[in-house]
Model the fold of this input.
Amino acid sequence: MADDTVRGEAAAGAQTESSNGGADGENQSLSKRQRKKLLKQQKWEEERELRKERRKEKKQQRREQRQNQPEEEGGEAQSFRKRPRREVTPSSVRLVVDCGFDDLMLLKDVRKLHKQIQRCYAENRRALHPVQFYLTSIGGQLKQSMDEKDKGWVNWKDIHIKTEHYKDVVEKEELVYLTSDSPNVLEELDQKKAYVIGGLVDHNHHKGITFERAKELGIEHAQLPLSSFVKMNSRKVLAVNHVFEIILAFLEKGSWRDAFFTVLPRRKGAVAVTQGEENTLKEDEENSDSDSDTPEQTA
Done:
């Protein structure tokens, strides 16, 4: 009987040792890096609740600080965090993007025009003196691109989107087409006028078309006074959004020079014109070749 008891205890001890040996063997089979990673994971799990409590405490502390700041500091800390809002005074000047060149553009250029229009809209929304913004002759590839790439455009605010031609939206005597081919130079902005920007990106395949259309319709035309203030490496032909932004900048700054150098991209190589250079620059521009990388736009 005693021998049976001894044998049973010995068997149980052997089984326990075998079990522990298996665990030890498993641990020994892990590399040093794996064991370290396992211990780190176990510790992370054990401290999960502690981290949650700390986050709650920090959140409560921040909430109490925000509640106490207006009382202790008269609200100065809270007002400091807010960006001061400028007083916006809308302008009565109307800017019209003529989108009636859809059939003259490739789809890739229509999409570029779409992006330029998006930029115009965004800049006008944040401008100090936003203009009355019109898109006319909307349709075709441009509308398709806007529907596919920017479904929210139908909800744009402070903009007049028309399928009609601009001559059917604005009185003829109030229209001024901005085109770099016009011999007339725009010195001031007339608050009663609607200035038309040609919505065309075609890399000069249809050079002078905006000027010709203005003459065909018998409406006023003019170019921005670029030559009076700026000399550039390329032709004085700008993208839709650049013309749009220059006018916004002029309305804010009251200076064409400041407006040009605020907006013009560096790749244009814009340099301020000195006295005596203006006439020379005009002659150079008339004799220069077209810039094949620049869209036919107004300036």
Observations:
- The chain has a mean pLDDT of 79.
- Residues 235 and 288 are 8 Å apart (CA to CA).
- The chain has ten helices and eight strands.
- The radius of gyration is 35 Å.
